[in-house]
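Fresh eyes needed here. I'd like your take on this protein's tokenised backbone:
***
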Amino acid sequence: MPDRLFPALASGAHKQALHFGERTLTYDELAATAGALARDLPKGRVAVWATPTPHTSVAVVAALLAGVPAVPINPKIGERELAHIVSDSEPALVLAEPGVGLPDGLSTIPRRDIDLDEKAAPQDPLDEPGAEAPALVVYTSGTTGPPKGVVLPRRALAATLDALEDAWQWTPDDVLVHALPLFHVHGLILGILGPLRRGGSVRHLGRFSLDGVARELGDGATMLFGVPTMYHRIAGEVAENEALAKALRGARLLVSGSAALPVHDYQRITAATGQQVVERYGMTETLMNTSVRADGERKPGTVGVPLAGVELRLVGEDGERIDEPGTVGEIQVRGPNLFTEYLNRPDATSAAFDDGWFRTGDMATRDADGYVRIVGRKATDLIKSGGYKIGAGEIENALLEHPNVAEAAVTGEPDDDLGERIVAWIVPDGEPPAAAELADHVARLLTPHKRPRVVRYLDALPRNDMGKVMKRALGG
């Protein structure tokens, strides 16, 4: 029989598994509720209206127990993207929280509400399918066309979560706190399925708040998962908020992901709490690739070293492997953490691989110790200016060290002389700093050729639900 994704569900333990607000499910309750639903699911894919609730968690666990691929759907999705996902994935059923209205785009699909109190009579666990069976179909953000359905096999989920067990020393005693959405890899796979595979527990805040973080970490929780926008809020208040600082000091591990954590925010949190936030790097198609280890050296601005089982290389524009420390190249990976295919897109699947290596499109350097530093996306964050290849990320970190810069994004735009000129998009903190002042600031911290030639001021940077800056909306 294949290995079970969630061995703790079969233990019958009366230990807290999921906690959302006033609702808690123990492992025996989750096994009974998800088991009852699993036995009623149709063959084929099922859509999950992925609200940040225990209902979403039960729905996904039930689908995994039944061996039915689940398609999590963002509740904020637009009409066009929803229509594409429905026609592409052809779900036989949509699972939803009771009382939640669904858009017209799902009206033709049978609906089943999740009853958290439904229990099955005691029965032997369902036989789970093999390692290569599809577990989830997670749709990409669709920045370069319609969203692609990333088919993630059970093997990828198990490999990533077990590699993180090793890297983060994750145990059944850990209690995770997070407030991430449940339609994507970070919040759903790492944040819900991760604790369940370990036999630990998760407390979901529903909505992120500093009071919620302080309350849960102060009440026995050991780990916090967040995105940089959350840690930015923490960094802005932790020095003056002793309750928050005390709670963070007591945590075993603080983890940031989904986008680069500005070094300035990392430093402010460390100064107030002594905690050094762990960064990791992954994608929908690859799940997790690298992480700073819990027992390893912390290097601000890096995403650590490859996880167990993951091979990583940097490749130059000529296709040759880059081994020189500090040289920028595209990250390519291979290993058991990778997806199987893009649903119904054999062309896109083939184009994504280079002789078995997945082309991430992310640009990075490696230091002599093997630590990876992401400098940006190949499409939007690699700027070729005056004969230099410049990563936007290091300029953004430098700009954030200016006392009057709250947020920063860097893009390139065509320049007749330089090829591309560096453009800084700034959300000021107080009086907007002059463009020349910012240029001198960057030139002093980095080198003159990395200074912004143009500065534009905004009230806020455009971000998606995971906190990533949408640079295409800036013209980058």
User: Anything to note?
Assistant: Residues 382-474 form a domain with the GMP Synthetase; Chain A, domain 3 fold (CATH 3.30.300.30). The chain has a mean pLDDT of 91.
